[in-house]
Amino acid sequence: MERTDSDGAPPALGVGMIGYAFMGAAHSQGWRTAARVFDLPLRPVLAAVAGRDAAAVRAAAHRHGWAAAETDWRALVARDDVQLVDICTPGDSHAEIAIAALEAGKHVLCEKPLANSVAEAEAMAAAAERAREHGLLAMVGFNYRRVPAVAYARRLIAEGRLGAVRHVRVTYLQDWLVDPDFPLTWRLEREHAGSGALGDLGAHIVDLAQFLAGEPLVGVSAQLETFVRERPLLAGASAGLSASGGSDRGPVTVDDAAVFTGRLASGALAVFEASRMAPGRKNALRLEINGERGSIAFDLERLNELMFHDHAEPAVTAGFRRILVTEADHPYLEAWWPPGHALGYEHTFAHQARDLVVAVASGTQPEPSFADGLQVQRVLAAVEESAGKNAVYTPVPVPAPVPARAQV
Ligand SMILES: NC(=O)c1ccc[n+]([C@@H]2O[C@H](COP(=O)([O-])OP(=O)(O)OC[C@H]3O[C@@H](n4cnc5c(N)ncnc54)[C@H](O)[C@@H]3O)[C@@H](O)[C@H]2O)c1
């Protein structure tokens, strides 16, 4: 599966990517950068990219450094020089592509949310489990876990610096839908996106809450709202959050905003808000976690900083202090610049590529797994169910832990 090169370079790991717009550009940067910054056991090779428009996919291959272009994702999955398939398309295609790639003997990285429904996510998690028996690995692209300050927050919580977690408070706010004339892109159509702010932004903050607290949500109480119910139909192609519309309008079939509370397995309380309707908030993912011995707070718009309060310190000098997460001993920082030379959004994708390559080389399950992605999907479904019943508390099915005896 891997080629060993005679010049002493690490063996190649051929990557094939499907979709080449917003996430396609971000992932390309991650794949190009990871091996230049980190000492990797395998060398990611950007073998081929797939899209549906021949001229556009060729241009994307040239721009982002892919050796070949395909106009059908099936042809990309079938290529001998592709050992890992990276899925950067809207949610309606994730399940079909991921399952086909795993069954074709490829490792898979799939963008979030894992799927558009629990049923699809279950099929993907089952395919990943079957593929695992053949040494194949699957991971979901919840890249915010790989912001160094977030990874460090997880480390502090796992080390017990906060004690038992009592509160998780997370908001993720953007404002690109405030304009009622922003066109009806796939992100506003249920058949393509599954849900709106909920699946787009809510999926990230549900994953972060469960990752940071180290435990699943067991129930939610939710409200959803669609403030602008009709928008101009798309004129031409959209990419990321850019699009232009025509004069005819069509129905918005997803939520603009989601607010919900939740309970974690330990009894800790969680509060969530996801909106694409918050003027002035561009990519404002903010979280605060309060434990019995301290608190942490994080703001993605100041992503090199982690605020930490140690409640054991004398009250007269205690308070939130700002940790600049750029020291070599902080997660991922050993390979980057000297302290204080800050990182940004794009670095999370290099960290994602690094972690997946290391997992593939060692044959260990990378996180977040498809099972983690499925658990997020169950929370999103419970949020929709609760919102449909005027916020009635709705349990989230949580699989029983694997008995210790059965663990490998
Ligand atoms: N991790 C993050 O921070 C983050 C940010 C934005 C989007 N996303 C996720 O990434 C995925 C893609 O979002 P995006 O913002 O890149 O969207 P986008 O609209 O910018 O790009 C989608 C790409 O998929 C292609 N595509 C669509 N259907 C296809 C098909 N059947 N076959 C081949 N190509 C197809 C489009 O041509 C385009 O290149 C979504 O799941 C989204 O939720 C994640």
Q: What's the helical proportion of residues?
A: 25-40%
Q: Averaging pLDDT over every residue, what do you get? A: 96
- Which residues sit in consecutive blocks of at least 5 with pLDDT less than 50? none
CATH fold assignment of the domain at 164-292 and 370-388:
Dihydrodipicolinate Reductase, domain 2
Short recap of the structure:
One of its GO terms (molecular function) is nucleotide binding. By secondary structure, the protein is an alpha/beta fold. The protein has helices at 22-37, 54-64, 73-78, 94-103, 118-132, 148-158, 190-193, 197-213, 347-362, 370-388, and strands at 12-18, 43-50, 68-70, 84-87, 107-111, 138-141, 165-173, 217-225, 230-234, 245-251, 257-264, 269-275, 284-291, 294-299, 305-310, 321-324, 394-395.
Structure overview:
Residues 151-296 form the GFO/IDH/MocA-like oxidoreductase domain. Keywords: Oxidoreductase. The protein is of the alpha/beta class and 408 residues long. The protein has helices at 22-37, 54-64, 73-78, 94-103, 118-132, 148-158, 190-193, 197-213, 347-362, 370-388; strands at 12-18, 43-50, 68-70, 84-87, 107-111, 138-141, 165-173, 217-225, 230-234, 245-251, 257-264, 269-275, 284-291, 294-299, 305-310, 321-324, 394-395. Strand 11 and strand 12 form a beta hairpin. The model has no long low-confidence stretch (mean pLDDT 96). The protein contains 10 helices and 17 strands. The strands form 3 sheets. The protein has a 9-stranded mixed sheet. Bound molecules: nicotinamide-adenine-dinucleotide (NAD).
